[in-house]
Specification:
By secondary structure, the protein is an alpha/beta fold. Helix content is about 35%, strand content about 15%. It contains 14 helices and 16 strands. The chain has helices at about 30-40, 55-65, 115-120, 140-150, 150-155, 195-205, 220, 230-235, 260-285, 290-300, 310-315, 340-345, 350-360, 365-380; strands at about 25, 45-50, 70-75, 85, 90-95, 105, 130-135, 160-165, 165-175, 175-185, 185-190, 210-215, 325, 335, 385, 390. The strands form four sheets. Strands 5-2-1-6-7-8-11-12 form an eight-stranded mixed beta sheet, with helices on both faces. Helix 3 (about 115-120) runs parallel beside helix 4 (about 140-150) and helix 13 runs antiparallel to helix 14 (about 365-380). The longest helix has 25 residues, at about 260-285. The chain is globular and about 55 Å long.
Amino acid sequence: CSVHTLALIPMESDTAPHIGNLRVCVVGGGNASHACMALLPFKGIETKCFTAFGDEAERINAGLAAQDGAMRATFAAHNDPSGDIAGKPLCVSSDPAIVADCNVVLLPVPTFAFEPALRALKDHLPHGAFIAATPGQGGFDWIARYVLGPLLEERNITLFTIGGMPFNCRISEFGRHVNVQQYSKAYQVASVPQARFAECIAITRRLFGPACSLGHIMSATLQPLNANIHPMHLKVLLKEWRAGETFAEVPKFYETMSEADDQLMRDVSWEVQQVAAVLRRTKKWECRPETIWESECLRGCWAPHLTVAEVFCTSPAYKGFKAPFVPAPAPQSGFVPDFSHRYFTEDIPYGLAVWKGLADLCSVRAPVITSIIEWAQAYMQKEYVVGGRLCGAHVCETSAPQRYGIHALENL
């Protein structure tokens, strides 16, 4: 594949308009939200957190109260910042009304959380708000349009995506502390409407760091992130495994990647590129998602002779992560794959199924994507693909365009 240079060219900083003081509402109580609650106030940005899941808000507030209101984060030594930092969010609440005086709503959440979060916030979104999803995959734009409808225009709301994900991190103490293994150094932004792209770039730079254009927002959905990585390695890792068998120990995840993984990742990436090519030709969109090699090797400034799998095996950003296994049920000993893990429950219905749905709309054959979905859905006890097309009983549980009534390319 040829190298796409568009997304690698930064905008000059003096083109960004003055956007005033940021007042950010971070959505969710997961790993990345913990990191945002530490980092953004640490950088002097007014930050709130909205989370309505279970008792998360109560638990986070209890943790913050024990630390003088501060969320703490430890950034690995190769990052900037590095070491321990702390930030004090203004409030953490399950009340969506806290968003009313915020000019930026930040969703560092998985795709399945987009719809319920937007529904909860819908009646409280202020005029002129910027709603950012990171990394914004899985059809963020059509999900937001489905939920918010005419409100987008009535309240002059801007949607944008920030890719890739700012953090590779894990909560160590809920409501108190998060470990950040990797903090991204540069970001790619796409917006709807595109006329507000300069403001979105300026916001991203204030929040996280250097940013540049990703082109049309569809490029965010087609970026080769988790869904172009996790399911492929799981398929290779479990090639010889059969139900009822166990592993003596939990293997490391990224550090065990091989040439077979590299081939599968590149094959999936190539099929996604074919979808993007059809969208460029038929819709005249500037839709140029990176290939998996561009995303992991070129943008990461690795030696050009390295494969994607070799980068995953050697990068400090991916050290120490284990495969999604759980203890085998009694009386067996050892470990078995966890098919309820997000590498299945997120990356298949909100990643590969979305790409498959777009491929069907674009009349693009995607045999590798299709085969991986078929392999995974058998273990997940789901039916996404039937007869080679995305038309199974559980398409309604995906974020594919078909789930939102988009069944023809002209309706996309």
